[in-house]
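Batch manifest, entry 17 of 40.
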Amino acid sequence: MNSYYSKFLLFSLFGLFIVAASCKTSEVKSQEEDDPKSAYLFVYFTGNGPGEEAVHYALSRNGYDYYALNDDKPIVPTAQISNTGGVRDPHILRGEDGIFYMVLTDLKTQNGWSNTEIILAKSSDLVAWETSKINLAEVFPEFSDITRAWAPQTIYDAEAGKYMVYFSMLQPGSYDKIYYAYANADFTALESAPKQLFYSPDEKSCIDADIINKDGKFYMFYKTEGTATKGIRVAVSDSLTGGYVPVEGYVDQTDKAVEGSSVFKMIDSDTYILLYDMYIDGAYQFAESTDLRNFEALGAAEISMNFHPRHGTIIPITEQEANRLLKAFPSKDLPLVTGATNQAVRNQNIKVDAEAKTVYLPVYPGSDLSSFNPGLLTFPGVTVEQNESYDFENDAVSYTLNLPDGTTTTYEVKAELAGNPVLDGYYADPEIIYSNKDQKFYLYPTSDGFDGWAGTYFKTFSSTDLVNWKDEGVIVDLTKDVSWANRNAWAPCIAERKIDGKYQYFYYFSAAQQIGLAVADNPAGPYTDSGKAFVGEKPEAIKRGGGQIIDPDVFQDPQSGKSYFYWGNGYMAGAELNEDMRSLKEETITEMTPDGTYREGTEVFFRNGTYYFMWSEDDTRSPNYRVRYATADSPLEPLNIPEENLVIMKDEEQEIYGTGHNSVINVPGTDDWYIVYHRFTRPKGISMGGAAGFNREVCIDKLSFTEDGSIIPVKPTLKGIEPVNLP
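Output type: structure tokens
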């Protein structure tokens, strides 16, 4: 707990919220409006239950990790600003005049979903708000029959020199449409009756419109509903007040029910963030874009909130504005250190312990820790006294943090070289080979970080030392390169074969719960798909029920020169490959399931006359996901399971969890062996629940054997391995 935040008293807080609209705050110029923006304010409500339909605030330093202010309690007394006793869908705008404008739906859903009022609010400081209620049915006779007015928003019309308020309304016998009107100079009422702005071409309900101006064009994001049309769409116009033409398709990146979309631009960036409320699932999703047409969802590990928002909006704010909000709406559990600016620090894996007041900084191998300045990033309102280099090689360094109330606190910061994970970002199910053609190692993982394992492409990475990896780009994209499957790109494997004096690469991959094959002349591609599933049905020889057709593994027997293929989930199947590597010898298909611990992820390799078979036990979403092994005398013979056959498992002391689905690599010309596996993203993974199972990281550690060939259990590490030298 950060005690300094609790020292600020909410003195006369409710007195700050002036309900009457007598004060001309729209004439006041915000002193901070031209200051650099350095933080983000998220305004939202929390639900449909008692007291949840109210305005809440949260702050973020980076636009991705948000923390509730005021201990996630309302920042304005709902009963004083609302007729119904509930407010929803808060939309906030920084005005051209330096004033902040907020509009809300006046609705308490405990009384039903019908309402006729919206609320206009304005503030010069984000703390004190003047509010006005507008009953659209009473003020405008032509809309006296409306049954609901939802989700108002505001945008400045530069041509008109006024603030336009737009919202959806429903009249009997029709469907929800978007209307607009201009606010008066005091932002207390609408100048005239609303005009129709937009309706969905399919004549279905159209709600939750959000308009943003980019390069002179206006992009309207909206929710449309219906059996075949349900989700977030975008329409584009050259004019703010009409002419919107829908773009084909949907921009939300989920098949879940969504509403309440909003877009904001990242500070000093060309990136826009589209956020939307997955209201049935109780989740929020963020998606990135640079053109406002094509979006890519951010994974669960990339976004964090210590609260559960509903239908909100985000704006950038200045440091002064953030400080003022912290003093007015303190919270007990806000972070102090949020990251580091030094590019040698793996920000994805920083661990901050607020209770112990410690920071762990994982640093890329090869960095000089004897004179190192991490460039600590702090939560808004917190500054660091030290801005110089220190010796981190042996001990932690004490940092003094200056807090908004004038006090200080000390954090112990430890920086260590960390080779794991070996790849930046989220990847899983790693396959590794040594290419004799290129004399490099190549790593082929699942592209991870997609909710529900929804990735659609594969990449490869190359290295000469197993420590430093180069991104070689996408080698197979299901949506572009594969005709028979377009989802669930998982768990690939690869074989390098010399056929007729020419190297060829056979890339087997899971897609749509089948296994495909793509072929290339180089390990980094380009790859050409075979045009059909390599294994599309469960063979008759596999007797076990259930299980998916996934997780291929290919193995070339150094003794016979033959190649073998393995796959399965819930069962282990094996077969000999034909010489062309493009088909199985059907008569050799064998079920090889070792025992009840087998789940998936077969890996086969040969060492000193012994065939080793590895597999993953438990579920990849489980912290106990781990690897076991057996041996055999040939590639398709029954497996011998050692009494102690655990290869790698979680290490709770190091907070390493979910260690599984591995491959193995031998450094050519040596007896040096390494295990390549994935783990939960660290440190967030263990607190993510099932989502940790699709936010994983690839690691490499040393694999060792006893004299009799038994595998010595591997202790997963943060440090990783030293660079290897190829003969």
